Amino acid sequence: MFQSLTDRLSNAFKSFKNKGKLTEADVKEGMREIKLALLEADVNYKVVKDFIKTTTERAIGSEVLESLVPSQQIVKIVNEELTALMGGENTKLVISSKPPTIVMMTGLQGAGKTTHTGKLALMYKKQGKRPLMAACDVYRPAAIKQLQVVGESIGVPVFTIEGCKDPVKIAKEALEHAKKHGNDMLFIDTAGRLHIDEELMEELQRIKTELEPTEILFVVDAMTGQDAVNAAAAFNEKLDVTGIILTKLDGDTRGGAALSVKAVTGKPIKFAGTGEKLEDLEQFHPDRMASRILGMGDVLSLIEQAEQKLDQKKAEELADKMMKNKMDFNDMLNQYEQIGNMGPIKGILSKLPGVGNKLDEVDINERVLDWNKAIILSMTPEERSHPGLMNPSRKRRIAAGSGRPVEEVNRLIKQLEQTQKMMRTLNSKGKKGKKMRSMMNGGGMPPMGGGFPGF
User: Fold this and answer.
1) How far apart are CA 147 and CA 123, in angstroms?
2) What is the C-alpha separation between 261 and 265, in angstroms, rounded?
3) CA 349, 93, 168: angle at the middle one, nearest 5?
4) Could you say which DSSP state residue 403 is in?
5) Angle 293-298-302 (CA atoms, 0-180°, nearest 5)?
């Protein structure tokens, strides 16, 4: 995510780090590099111009030029200005005081409206809501079926009217259905359209007039950069949207849409799609995103992700076994499954401070996780519970059963042994060991005893 922008900004900051004291000329030269980095990332030109002007004015002030560590002050200022550029603070979805909360999903064709309608419904279902999705895309072949499949997979009902070609009628009847059946949230999946299509835009305006939605969200494909921002501005002009959903943010190496859309439309980014799974939707936090862009990590999002996707009880049991030095291959298998639930390893590591901007230098094979699980599953129950039983013939059998070389079996065994050795050392240190145990049990994250596989 935003990797090329992160790299360019890191290079720009190096010019500040090499100087003990900064002059006004040094600041302007560094800002020129930051300006080029933002333009290359496809950030709107006017947005870049205003950003550089504001940042430069702050940077040539006394807080930087007279600072003991001016390079750190520059990074702090850029971080604060990036945060402000993307909205300043997290803006949550408005929940109506009089149910149901009506969320109207709009956007261009292929932006991911139907999928993200499902993602939002799932997110709020997990928060105790009773969502209903309305299939109002009557133009795209199989659009209704797609929403029904999504609804079935997440356990959320989908309202349709067989053979009806009037989206306004479907939306109105869906609202009545929601009121009668106690659905406190209604997500309206509308057809994708170009902002220049007057007839279809009028249709959206009619839905807005008839239902008076609580929220009108515009779904933007982040990878289309400035085209997406221009479309968002056009839709906002017609509909007065209340917020933005950025999709495919995990594949956006530049970051132009994320950095431009709030400044251009004046509307906050409320959610970000970060993967293909229906669980891969995050509330958008400008301050955390700015930290990621600057390679400073995003530990808060990582902790929230862990709390949502990990089995806390299993994590605590594993931490307890590790501290008692009783960890075996069953625990390691559970650990791998917990890590797998959190998504791609590279995505997890990218949120750790100081790691994100170095990931390009490291070859991380995501399949190592599956290979290690295959090795453990090729062991007998007795071997998994008693690692000390391993001998050359058992290792060869396990390697053959898993389709992996003996060297990988040996590496996995060594990984477990190193974890056990580390825990013995911690336990021998008394109070420090107790402190470590407390951290592992209370942190929400699974104890990564053997490190991330493949890293």
Assistant:
1) 16
2) 6
3) 120
4) T
5) 140
**Exposure of 286 by Cβ count < 10 A (0-12 exposed, 13-18 middle, 19+ buried)?**
buried
The 10s digit of each residue's pLDDT in 272-311 is 888 888 988 889 888 888 887 876 655 555 555 565 555 6
pTM: 0.67
Dihedral, 413, 414, 417, 421 alpha carbons, nearest 10: -170
**Burial category of 111 from C-beta neighbours within 10 Å (exposed 0-12, middle 13-18, buried 19 and up):** buried
Q: What is the pLDDT of residues 186-213, one digit of tens each?
A: 999 998 877 667 888 888 999 999 999 9
What is the SS3 assignment for 353? Answer: coil
Question: In the structure encoding, which two tokens stand for residue 168, read together?
Answer: 């306004």
Pairing label, strands 185-190, 131-136: parallel
CA dist 352 → 16, 303, 365 (Å): 24, 11, 18
Q: In the numeric block, which tokens belong to residue 204?
A: 């959206």
CB 154, CB 278: distance < 8 Å: yes
Residues making up the chain, counted from first to last: 455
Q: What is the mean pLDDT of residues 332-357?
A: 68
Alpha-carbon Rg for the chain, nearest whole angstrom, is: 26
* Residue 201: predicted pLDDT: 85
Distances (CA, A) of 58 to 62, 80, 306: 8, 11, 37
378: tokens are: 């090729």
Structure confidence by residue, pLDDT tens digits, 71-96 = 777 888 888 888 898 888 888 899 99
Name the burial class of residue 234, with classes exposed (0-12), middle (13-18) and buried (19+) by CB atoms within 10 angstroms of its CB: middle
Mean pLDDT of the chain: 80
Q: Which residue bears the tokens 């862009």?
A: 293
pLDDT of residue 122: 95
Sheet with 185-190, strands from edge to edge, namely 158-159, 131-136, 185-190, 101-107, 215-221, 243-247, 269-273, 281-283
Read off the pLDDT of residues 117-166 as tens digits, 9 standing for 90 and up.
999 999 999 999 999 999 998 888 788 999 999 999 999 999 999 888 89
Beta-strand relationship, 281-283 and 269-273: antiparallel
CA distances from residue 425 to 205, 318, 415, 435 in whole angstroms, order as listed: 67, 18, 16, 14
> Do the beta carbons of residue 329 and residue 379 sit within 8 Å?
yes
66: region left, alpha or beta (phi > 0 left; psi from -120 to 50 alpha): alpha
Q: Which residues, at least 6 apart from 168, have a Cβ–Cβ distance to it below 8 Å? A: 203, 206, 207, 210
Q: Which helix (H) or strand (E) holds 73?
A: helix 70-85
DSSP-derived letter for residue 94 is P
